[in-house]
């Protein structure tokens, strides 16, 4: 699949993916030849890049999905059963680095989610523009799903803004981020009919000057985690997310030299239902598989 990262490369715009343990974005085969130099450790690079004003045109941040045995850090991804306060800490750390960094006056920080987390929504999902002419299992993807939270942070946004899409346009959805990138850093072609029609977020940045600085820092939740908690988290059965990551990491290539051949081999070996998830693993065993697959890919690409 073509990705927004490929589009940004074509437009000669910069981008990076800052990750903790396993970057799910590394499983996108169209990115494999572009990831060297753009796939960076969050702990080693994001905070210093943000403070120094060295962030690229587009940064994508992936949270920690597994318990980190080396540094005694619990997951901060908000997937059940993980502690939500730890992801609040991640968001606050990102805000503090951006807010006090050299690039604050020209930054839009977007906090959003891929899923609704099981929360009930009283609004019936409205019709949506089908992204393409494909009909997977007979479904046209012609309606939206349950709403998810989205928070926009920028000195260009008036305090207390509650954003709504312009009248007569589709509602804001995930592809509004893609539409915004196309408006700011294009021109480049949309990925699908969905993001072609999606309203962008640019009009929300409506102040004449970047004057809404907000608080200089946010309180950092600091949940106490004992050694027994780390041990229990690692020994617990792997979640569906962990199992899926272990299976995906196992199919990463050895670097970027033979990407075309590797993709062809995957096309021959993946069953019609997709890549089967790993089964019967503990969280630590799933993490070991993830590290092995990622190390194979990064070392083969001359990275670490």
UniProtKB/TrEMBL annotation:
> Which residues lie within the region annotated Disordered?
207-229
Domain of life, source organism: Bacteria
Q: Which Gene3D superfamilies match?
A: Alkaline Phosphatase, subunit A (3.40.720.10)
A Pfam family of the record is Phosphoesterase
Key words, A-Z: Hydrolase
This protein is called: Phosphoesterase family protein
Question: What species does this protein belong to?
Answer: Dyella acidiphila
């Amino acid at each position: 699949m073509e990705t927004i990262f490929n589009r940004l490369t074509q437009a000669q715009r910069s981008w990076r993916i800052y990750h903790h343990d396993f970057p799910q974005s590394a499983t996108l085969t169209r990115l494999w030849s572009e990831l060297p130099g753009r796939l960076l450790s969050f702990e080693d690079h994001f905070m210093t890049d943000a403070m120094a004003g060295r962030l690229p045109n587009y940064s994508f941040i992936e949270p920690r999905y597994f318990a980190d045995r080396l540094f005694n850090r619990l997951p901060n991804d908000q997937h059940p059963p993980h502690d939500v306060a730890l992801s609040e800490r991640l968001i606050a750390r990102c805000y503090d680095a951006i807010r006090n960094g050299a690039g604050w006056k020209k930054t839009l920080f977007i906090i959003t989610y891929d899923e609704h987390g099981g929360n009930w929504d009283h609004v019936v999902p409205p019709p949506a523009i089908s992204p393409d002419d494909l009909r997977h299992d007979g479904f046209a993807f012609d309606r939206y799903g349950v709403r998810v939270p989205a928070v926009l942070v920028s000195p260009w946004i008036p305090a207390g803004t509650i954003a709504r899409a312009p009248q007569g346009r589709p509602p804001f959805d995930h592809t509004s981020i893609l539409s915004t990138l196309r408006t700011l850093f294009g021109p480049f072609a949309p990925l699908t009919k969905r993001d072609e029609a999606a309203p962008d977020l640019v009009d929300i940045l409506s102040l004449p000057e970047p004057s809404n600085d907000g608080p200089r820092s946010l309180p950092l939740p600091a949940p106490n985690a004992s050694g027994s908690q780390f041990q229990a988290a690692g020994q617990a059965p792997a979640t569906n997310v962990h199992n899926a990551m272990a299976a995906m990491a196992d199919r990463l290539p050895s670097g970027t030299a033979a990407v075309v051949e590797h993709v062809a081999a995957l096309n021959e070996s993946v069953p019609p239902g997709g890549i089967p998830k790993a089964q019967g693993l503990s969280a630590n065993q799933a993490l070991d598989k993830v590290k092995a697959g990622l190390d194979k890919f990064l070392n083969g690409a001359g990275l670490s």
